[in-house]
Structures are given as C-alpha cells and as structure tokens.
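FAD/FMN-containing dehydrogenase
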Amino acid sequence: MRPELGILRAEFGADQVLDGEAALPFERDWRGRATGAQAGRAMAVLCPRSVDEVQAMVRAAARLHLALVPQGGNTGLVLGGTPDASGAELVLSLKRLNRIRRIDPINATLTAEAGCVLQTLQQACAAQQLLLPLSLAAEGQCTLGGNLATNAGGTQVLRWGNARDLCLGLEVVTADGLLWSDLDGLRKDHRGLNLRDLFIGSEGVLGLITAAVMKLAPLPRSRLSAWLTLPSLEAALQLLPQARAALGDGLSGFEVMGQAAQLLLPELPLPAAPWALLVEVSSHRDEAQTRAELEAWLAPALDAGRMLDAVVAHTEAQAHALWALRESIPGAQTRAGGNLKHDIALPLDRIAAFVADCEARIQRAFPGARPTVFGHLGDGNLHFNVAPPVGQSLAEFQPHEAALNRLVFDCVADWGGSFSAEHGIGRLRAAELAARGDAVGLDLMGRIKQALDPANRLNPGRVLASGSDGNRADA
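Tokens:
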C-alpha cells in the first residue's frame, strides 16, 4: 500500500477512501473506452459526505502533491471523469453530496448538491408542479455537478438552453480548498466578473462544483409528441422554422434520425424512411388546444409532401414510448456492433450540405463504412457516428479511428462547425483541442488554469492537454 493511502485513511476513514475492488466502478467509463492503454486505475477513490469534507480532501491532496479527478455520475463520454492508467490519481466522487437543500416555488428555483441524480431532482420538482427543464438520456444516473461541469445539453436545449442557461449560482471548492458560494438565486446580479460561467463547462479543471441554484418553470399542462417520416434532411430543416412559427415557445424538442432509425426496427411507429423526426410540444394550455395547434402545423406539411407520414402520441405512455425509442439509439448501435463516435455542432443552414459532403468523403476514404446520423437538430447538434463496413468488426475498423476523426473534423471545420458540441473535451479530445483551437483562446484558457490551479492539481490532462504529467500534480 502506498504511504499516501495510509495517510488518507487515517484522516478520513476506510469507508471514504476506497481502493481495489471497491474502486472499480469509479475507474470504468460509461462507454467502455477506458481499456488497454487508456484503462483507468486510481490510487484511491475519495467519497466525501459534506462540503467541509470536500475542502479537507482537496487540502490533503495538496499536501501530498496528488492530482484529483472529480467525478459525478460517471456518465461522461470523453474520459474526463475517470482516472488515467498511472495509478497515481485520486478520484474524488461527489455522489454522497446528494441533498436537495431547497425548492423555492416563489423564486422558481432549486438549490441542490452536486451529487443529486438529475432524474431525482426532476421528480422532486414535479411533485411541486415545477419543471427542471434539463433532460438527457443519462438522467437516471448523471448528477447535477457533472451536468454543470460539462454544460450538459440534451433534448430540451431548443427551448430552455444548456445547463449554463438554467443555472443562477454555484458553490465551488477551489484548488487550494477554499469555498466560494454564490447561491443567492438572484436573476440580476452584477457584482464584478461572472465567476459562475467560468466554472460551468470547465470539466473540473478549475474547481469542484459542490452545489447549484437552478431555474425552474411551471410544469406544463400538456405535453405532446409526434413521430414524422421525411424524404430528406433538407425537408427536416425546412420544417424547423415553420414549427417555430406555428408552435412558438411550445416547441421543446426537434430530434432527427437518419439511418440510425433503421436500428430500431421493428419497433418504429411508422414504416422506415430516409429520415425521421421526433417533435415535442409542451404547453400551459390544455391538451385539446395543444393538439389542435400541432395538427394544424402537421396537416399542410403532409399535404405539400414535405413529410411522408406522421403519428401523434395520444397518451402520455405513447409519448414516453416514442422518446424511449429515440433514447435507445446508442444502445441499439452497440448491439449492432458499435461505431466510432463524433459529437459535432454546425450552423443550421449548413447541416444538410455538411452531411452530404462528409458522407461522400468517408466513402472515398473508407468504402462501405456506414455513417449513422441522429441528434438534436433544433440546436444544430448531430451525433455523427460511423459503423464499420458490413462484415467487418469494430475492432478491425478501430485502427482507422485517427484518420476517420481527422476526416470528419476537417469537414466540420470546412463547414464552420465545432468538433465538440455537448460531450466535452476530457482526455479523449484534448489533443484535438490543442491542434484545432484558436491560439489566443487556448492561451487565455491556459492563463486562467494557471491562475486558479497553478500546481495543475485538478483533472490534469483533461481539456488542456499541455501541462499534464498524469502523476504527481506539481512534481
């Protein structure tokens, strides 16, 4: 046993300093990418039960010159919250910080700790007829702190924005163990620089989010979903401004599926088509009015041939079933043999041209490779995944990953987009950011990191690839 482990156990107790078999769930990432050379191995997993203990553990790590890897629900997709292979990093799990401190119906806010599971928060708010609008496929496991540290997006960004847009304040433990608290829940507050937005989306490299105040909204009286089939991606993009005009702020979901939808057969509610859309409308009007508005938008589009067919969910159970189909695509891809994933964002008016161009480039470079495209069309975020040619396993296709990534990301850049939309940078895309990021922007990021964490103790090697040794943080 390393001497540092004995010191930590003596200070915090064996039940809060895990290693060996007990540490395994915290070392394995959700996608299973942490294997081989990237396999995670922590010196130990620290499990604080309070903010005071988070501060104490951060200070202890500083005394021992050890790096800390903050972890929430461990649902990240870019190896940002799992340890590297050195066995020298400490994972600091925030799962035990799971208290809802307050739901304020007058201010329409929720104050909760970082380890609260998103779905638990949604349910607690719904019990008081309030809506926490953040929604994503991992909501049954992901945690509030991780959502904010990665500026999570999901399926409701079109109407409500990312996690950043829903946050009014944070509580953060700094790299030297100090506590900064801004949990007033004020909507207008200009006391100097906006520190909140500095920590949101920083993936734990600047500080540890321990609690947050989130905006709430009244729970919708009606919520309707419709599954549409379309002849082309261009048709989906043409429908979006029409849906905005007809449905206004009620339009809360606009999800597109290309060949990815074929993986859901035979569960599809309509015959397979080149493209499908899942549209959601949430309203404070009664269901009959909302349904009339939705159908009034659908009818002329059907008559004009802009969509092939449409089915509207008539019950909440049917709506849940449609959304369950959409959210089952990643699992269906895994069962179909897996693929190489890209989480990208593009200007809406260039998406169709990008997809056509990128698919053509892929076929020239990797004949038979199968792009499977789906995602949050309403906010310009696509999951552009590529499966191996028929008859080839993912393991056989894996050696092409670097070249494929370069091809896809070059195409994204050519069309004015981003190679990282909502999944973040982590370890998986850190080199990509270093190579493709704006030089001035990268310099500013490095200066901020140096100012807030000069010893490079928090999540070294994540986001900012330079300045990481992966072992002792300030050795």
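The chain is about 35% helix and 20% strand.
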